[in-house]
Amino acid sequence: MARTFAPLTDREREVLVLVAQGLTNREIARRLNICEKTSRNTVSRVYEKLNVERRTQAVVRAIELGLVKVNACGSQ
To answer: pLDDT tens digits, the chain, 76 residues: what are they?
Structure first.
């Protein structure tokens, strides 16, 4: 049975890619010119929508669902 998830917004997808690249909430906030709290909240919403509890789980789920791509160099 295929897993379903709530659709991610463009911003949530953008944050998820940065999470997959290994950035912290603080680094994501700086990169996107947003508050760190906003970054944390967005990551939390991504977790909720993907039904995961940790960054690693979010990245694995994102790869499984084709939301992020993996390449040999480690960048997205």
So the answer is: 456 778 999 999 999 999 999 999 999 999 999 999 999 999 999 999 999 999 999 999 999 999 998 874 555 5
Pairwise CA distance, residues 70 & 40, whole Å:
24
Task: Give the pair of three-digit tokens for residue 4.
Answer: 């379903």
**Cβ atoms of 33 and 41 closer than 8 Å:** no
Q: Which overall architecture, per CATH, does domain 10-64 show? A: Orthogonal Bundle (1.10)
Residues 6+ apart with CB under 8 A from 16: 8, 46, 58, 62, 67, 68
